[in-house]
Amino acid sequence: MGFFDSEIVQQEAKQLFEDYQALIKLGQNYGKFDREGKKMFIEQMEALMERYRIFMKRFELSEDFMAQMTAQQLQTQLGQFGMTPQQMFDQMNLTLERMKAEVDKQP
Predict the structure, then answer these.
(1) How far apart are CA 77 and CA 63, in angstroms?
(2) Helix-then-strand count for the chain, H and E
(3) pLDDT averaged per 10 residues in sequence order, the chain, 107 residues
(4) Contact 17, 76 (CB under 8 A)
(5) Which of 5, 50, 76, 100 lies 20 to 30 A from 36 at CA?
(6) Rounded to an integer, what distance in angstroms lies between the CA atom of residue 68 and that of residue 64?
(7) Which pLDDT does position 16 carry in this prediction?
């Protein structure tokens, strides 16, 4: 069975995408959130990024040709911006850390 033939992989990919879309939509109102709402949003983004990082690691570790191609495509796309997948995750984490610091400054 191929990597993408797995019902578990398909479901996780679908759930990641839906959760990401929902958080992005919710994040449009981030400036209106109170302090606790901002903290909750950041925690949810951190959890989503961790799930995404693990999902991408599965691609890298898989011996399936299509999974390897997908991982390579991501590297190529990010490379066009002068970035590696690890740098992408590091940048996302840095952004979330900055957001946390801002929230901590609020009364």
Answers:
(1) 21
(2) 4, 0
(3) 84 93 95 94 96 90 89 91 92 95 87
(4) no
(5) 50
(6) 6
(7) 94
Cβ atoms within 10 Å, residue 9: 19
What residue segments make up the domains of the chain, in order of their start?
A: 3-102
DSSP class of residue 34 equals: -
Phi, psi (5° rounding) for residue 11?
Answer: -65, -40
Q: Which of 56, 63, 35, 53 is nearest to 92 (CA)?
A: 53
Q: 104: which 2 tokens?
A: 């901590």
- Torsion over CA: 83, 85, 89, 90 (sign): negative
By CB neighbour count within 10 A (0-12 exposed, 13-18 middle, 19+ buried), where does 82 fall? exposed
Query: What's residue 83's pLDDT?
Result: 93
CA–centroid distance for 80 within its chain: 19
